[in-house]
Amino acid sequence: MQTPIHYKCRENNLWLSTNRIIYWEEEKALIASDLHFGKTGHFRKSGIAVPQNIFKEDIQRLIDQIAFFKAEQLIIVGDLFHSEANKEMELFKKWRKDFAALHIHLIKGNHDILENDWYTNAGLQVTENKLQITDFVFVHDISHINLKDEANHYFFSGHIHPGIQIKGMARQNLHLPCFYFGKQIAVLPAFSRFTGLYSIKPKKNETVYAITDDGLIKI
Fold first, then answer.
1. How many Å separate Cα 190 from the centre of its chain?
2. Parallel, antiparallel, or unpaired for β 130-133 and 173-181?
3. What is the mean pLDDT of residues 76-95?
4. Among candidates 23, 26, 32, which has minimal Cα distance to 135?
5. Residue of 174 and 63 predicted with greater confidence
6. Rounded CA gap, 189 and 176, in Å?
7. Which of 28, 173, 204, 215 could disulfide-link 72, Cβ–Cβ 3.0 to 4.6 Å?
């Protein structure tokens, strides 16, 4: 794994990982968004041949990050799951039993449509709209927030699967997942690699870290 990049946000120490996740040092918490567990199983149920190893690789990356940072909690900023329950979600339940001491807090996203009992049985603490911890607020879709009324808070969101275009040699263009940090908002990349990307165009004084196989590149 590439060395995480340190980012200071409102006197808090954040560590950005190429595995599309943030470690919040003060709370010993991993922050992730858009894991979309069950998506490949959903496609297979629809007759589309998607290999199951995508799900297994995503779970393993999550395990590796928990172990590396020695995280005590996991904050999911929406879309932990993709759709209705399937085999992959049952595998998630088995994984959850192996990490029973890890506190997992899910802020529901638009794809988190399972019955409430399912989340309870999986040992997840669920928030419908937004979760506040100190000055940080976690919400899946930032468009649901009136930022003018929340000037004292800094928001972490997901939903859009941000990507950034990088121009290379010989007119090559790379479209890479990224972390975005604005004045009042951070947008996390989709943790799942089985997602598309929405191109963002950062403005002055906004910071973007493109995620590559060799590390993070500050834009």
1. 5
2. unpaired
3. 84
4. 26
5. 63
6. 10
7. 28
Instruction: Give this prediction's pTM.
Output: 0.91
pLDDT in tens, 163-210: 999 876 566 788 999 999 999 999 999 999 878 899 999 999 999 999
- How many Å apart are CA 85 and CA 11, to the nearest integer? 40
Quick check: 43 pLDDT over 60?
A: no
d(CA 105, CA 76): 6
Q: How far apart are CA 89 and CA 41, in angstroms?
A: 9
Tens-digit pLDDT profile for residues 203-212: 999 999 999 9
The DSSP bridge pattern shows strands 73-76 and 103-107 to be parallel
Q: Which residues pair with 187 in a beta bridge?
A: 157, 180
Q: How far apart are CA 83 and CA 111, in angstroms?
A: 6
Q: How confident is the model at residue 48 (pLDDT cuts 50, 70, 90)?
A: very low
List the Cα angle 74/96/123 in 5-degree steps. Answer: 75
DSSP secondary structure letters along 90-138 = HHHHHHHHHTTTSEEEEE--TT--S-HHHHHHTTEEEESSEEEETTEEE
CA distance 155 to 131: 10
